[in-house]
Write a structure and sequence with these properties.
The complex is a heterodimer of chains A (about 375) and B (about 250). By secondary structure, chain A is mainly alpha-helical. Chain A contains 15 helices and no strands. The model of chain A has no long low-confidence stretch (mean pLDDT about 90). The N terminus of chain B is likely disordered. The chains are: A mainly alpha (about 375), B alpha/beta (about 250). Chains A and B meet through helix 11 and helix 12 of A and helix 3, strand 6, helix 4 and helix 6 of B.
């Protein structure tokens, strides 16, 4: 079937045909390519308009934005005055007004550190990262708790709102990842004692609901330890949350470790690398990159579940908004409160999700296992 | 001092006596005795499953043996981790599937063990890496990631990575078996070059042309045993055992 004539001239290289068609072409190809699809498109758009228009009217067009008392609410749309009037307490909880600059300082520092770490162009990542993990928590602790360096002591029961939510989320995230990594490595260890401990730890914390963990930490633990020893309630909750999520994290990381071919470790061994070098330089960087979606998924779940601390009487963002709903002067603004809380949670979670997608693309080196 | 060094140079590079290994009940290596002199180039061949890869993987303890004694460069192998790592620093290895680190650039692949295992300063490690990448003719790819290179290029990087540690002996575990045919030559050329420079080499391969060109000794293994060993001339022209003859007729027959 093949023409026996041999090729005497190379076919010249050509540009690929241009298949882009502009906005109209795109519409035609994707939304109106058959009469049925055209009809579906029209119906969908109509439905969206019917559903979204009232929501938009309520939330934006007919909403009340300015004022500082209930009198500013016209009742036609949402009354965001409810949020703006309580904004201070939503952010700071019951933190003393004169001391709120300390919270602001911690917020600004945190934002700067995160910005520095996620912008690829800025230098000295290693030192900034080290400061973020070691120096910053200590600094934030002394700033927020006070009681030394001439700062007034602010007990943690006066913390609340966004500030408390972020504290729990950041401590949870920063604590659970390294503990999870260590547990994942331990579960794959050759040493039966280490492996056994990690398996029991992971299975225990994973098998218990977070609410139970929080209850145990706040109600039952004080019954078992002598009364002289007093742990802060927030601290107990933080430790519980950290252990709980590190168990999940361990399983996510273990999934990544198992996906790395054994040849990688063998090559590292063959060059005389020790266990921690093999793990830290070769296996973990690849494994963690592989499970970024799973890690961020866990972070997002952790972030949202910080709102469960309201059952042990800590006033996080959601709890403080709920508390505001019972204010006799502001009865009947539950929708605004919950919508605002949802929006704040969504902004944080969506940012994490977007950043993780960006990170995956940036770390891709043209290799697939 | 000089005398001591001379004595050391006379001592064998690798000494294996009475080596036995089992996978579960399966006896993979049976009574292996093998002495490799300094600068000697050995090619190990044999049918698949004959234990040839397992044998060279025992030399740097990627596989643990149950019986017998292995001495590498004067250091007897024990189960002690520090001892094993000491031996591994003198033994370079090249794998069938390259096993380059995909998250590191070619240059990093070559520097990482130098800086972390040998504790060399970064600049010095990089200089060594670039010299050796030059030697395997791949210096222009130093900034790329392994995933962006062809198989032949990756295997040359893998050889360079092992050489960067300045090993006394190099182990090759079927280095060309995973390569497309047109890439085999570029890897073999590098290995021939290395052999000419006097490197002690143990090479598991089916490239009989390579064996004829550089090997001092060809070893034939079957069912976990060394069946025959001879210089390539004798090995290819006058194989003694029947099994060797059969094997050679199978791989050279077409």
């Amino acid at each position: 079937m093949v023409d026996p004539k041999s090729v005497t001239e190379m076919v010249a290289q050509r540009r690929p045909p241009d298949l882009r068609r502009g906005a109209l072409g795109w519409l035609h190809a994707n939304l109106f390519n058959t009469p049925l699809n055209g009809a579906v498109t029209v119906v969908t758009v109509a439905l969206l308009a019917v559903l979204l228009w009232p929501a938009l009217q309520w939330a934006v067009l007919q909403a009340d934005w300015v004022g500082d008392t209930r009198a500013a609410c016209s009742g036609e749309g949402a009354c965001w005055v409810f949020i703006s009037a309580r904004f201070e307490s939503i952010v700071y909880g019951f933190y003393p007004e004169t001391q709120r600059w300390r919270v602001n300082l911690v917020f600004v520092l945190l934002a700067l550190l995160i910005a520095w770490l996620i912008m690829p162009r800025l230098p000295a990542k290693r030192w900034v990262g080290l400061f973020a993990l070691v120096g910053f928590p200590v600094l934030a602790f002394f700033l927020l708790v006070g009681g030394s360096f001439g700062l007034e002591h602010v007990p943690t029961r006066r913390w609340g709102g966004v500030m408390l939510t972020l504290t729990i989320a950041v401590v949870g995230i920063v604590g659970s990842l390294p503990i999870g990594v260590v547990l994942a490595l331990g579960r794959r260890s050759q040493m039966p004692l280490v492996r056994g401990f990690c398996v029991v730890f992971i299975e225990f914390w994973r098998g218990v609901p977070l609410i139970t963990v929080l209850f145990m930490a706040s109600v039952m633990l004080p019954l078992f330890v002598p009364t002289q020893v007093e742990f802060d309630k927030l601290l107990r909750a933080l430790v519980g949350i950290m252990f709980f999520w590190s168990a999940y994290m361990a399983e996510v990381v273990r999934g990544g470790l198992q996906a790395i071919p054994s040849g990688q470790e063998e090559a590292a061994k063959a060059m005389g690398m020790g266990y921690w070098q093999r793990m830290g330089l070769i296996v973990l960087p690849q494994a963690l990159k592989l499970v970024i979606p799973g890690i961020v998924n866990t972070f997002i779940a952790l972030f949202k579940d910080t709102s469960l601390v309201l059952i042990i009487g800590l006033f996080d963002l959601l709890a403080i908004i709920r508390a505001g709903l019972t204010d006799s002067e502001w009865l009947g603004f539950a929708t605004e409160g919950y919508v605002f809380a949802a929006l704040v949670f969504w902004v944080f979670c969506f940012s994490m999700s977007r950043y993780s997608q960006h990170l995956e693309r940036r770390l891709h080196t043209g290799h697939r296992h | 001092m000089n005398q001591a060094k001379a004595a050391r140079d006379d001592s064998p590079m690798i000494e294996i006596t009475g080596l036995n290994k089992w996978y579960g009940d399966f006896h993979v290596l049976r009574d292996i005795d093998l002495t490799v002199a300094r600068g000697e180039r050995i090619v190990i061949c044999g049918p698949s499953g004959s234990g040839k890869s397992t044998l060279i993987r025992c030399i740097n303890h990627l596989e643990e043996h149950q019986e017998g004694r292995i001495v590498v460069n004067g250091v007897p192998m024990t189960r002690d981790v520090k001892r094993i790592e000491q031996i591994r620093r003198n033994v370079g290895m090249v794998f069938q599937h390259f096993n380059l680190f995909p998250h590191l650039s070619v240059l990093e692949n070559c520097c990482i063990a130098q800086t972390w295992v040998q504790k060399k300063p970064r600049a010095k490690a990089e200089r060594t890496a670039r010299e050796i990448l030059e030697r395997v003719q791949i210096a222009d790819q130093a900034h790329k990631y392994p995933g962006q290179l062809s198989g032949g290029q990756q295997q040359r990087v893998a050889i360079a990575r092992a050489l960067c540690m300045q090993p006394e002996v190099m182990l090759f575990d079927e280095p060309t078996s995973a390569l497309d045919p047109e890439m085999i030559k570029e890897v073999l050329d590098v290995m021939i070059e290395l052999a000419r420079d006097g490197m002690t080499m143990l090479c598991v391969t089916h490239e009989m042309g390579f064996a004829k060109t550089v090997a001092d000794r060809v070893i034939f293994m079957d069912q976990g045993q060394i069946i025959e060993q001879a210089p390539p001339e004798t090995f290819f022209n006058h194989p003694k055992s029947e099994r060797t003859q059969l094997f050679l007729s199978q791989i050279l027959g077409h």
